[in-house]
């Protein structure tokens, strides 16, 4: 195993069926703080990917498959045999691979603002972003990130919303190398052939104001994961769980509890 599961610290709160929450590039487990109300019904479990938050930068590069294997080993060490899994963006790719390769573990699956594979233009851009993070630090990418992650109206609010301040603070603390290694994993990812191996009931979520590529990816996942449901999060861009946490919480309650 390329990535050490003992480097992971699980953050657990609440009681009920386990809900594992996988964050996006550049963020950490605090991404999910706005969904803390779900702890009245579920045990919320979150952690930081390698090179993010509390988890150290790994000594070598890795692939999405390695993150999935690390998750499997981490849950096994924690004695978690069955769980709902939700992932956004980077976390959504990990969730896809994990659900396809660990069908007895995943109860219900939620894929948010994610894709099974980036298009050729985006794939060629990931090495550029990785180099920028290494050279200028992760925080240097914030202006472009905020334009993609949040709608114009949300970014125009005054004072600055706490969700945007959270992103700025987390990016400022994210090591450039940790961000860069994750960029390279995203650029190499191709999970298209795994969609047919996902058998857990699946909810695909996507911000209504997302970039076209992510909206197309959501439609593709909705059509190619058996029985998947697709819903658009109103007035949200890429960081939909930050921009519309109440809407996302309601959608999760409805989806997960209807299958209880």
Describe the protein.
It is a single chain. This protein is of the alpha/beta class. It contains ten helices and seven strands. A seven-stranded mixed beta sheet has the order 1-3-2-4-5-6-7, sandwiched between helices. Helix 1 crosses helix 2 and helix 3 (120-136) runs antiparallel to helix 7. The protein is globular, with a radius of gyration of 17 Å. The model has no long low-confidence stretch (mean pLDDT 97).
Outline of the structure:
It contains ten helices and seven strands. The chain is of the alpha/beta class and 260 residues long.
Mean pLDDT across the residues is 97
The global form is: globular
- What percent of residues are in strands? 5-15%
Number of helices: 10
CATH superfamily: Alpha/Beta hydrolase fold, catalytic domain
Low-confidence stretches: none
What is the CA-based Rg, rounded? 17 Å
Q: Describe the sheet with the most strands.
A: 7 strands, mixed
The termini sit apart by 34 Å
Instruction: Give the CATH architecture.
Output: 3-Layer(aba) Sandwich
Estimate percent helicity.
40-55%
CATH topology title: Rossmann fold
What is the total tally of β strands? 7
Give the oligomeric state of the chains in this entry, treating copies of one chain as homo and distinct chains as hetero.
single chain
Number of domains: 1
The ordered H/E elements are EEEHEHEHHHHHEHEHH
Structural class: alpha/beta
The spatial strand order of the largest sheet comes to 1-3-2-4-5-6-7
State the name of the first-level CATH class.
Alpha Beta
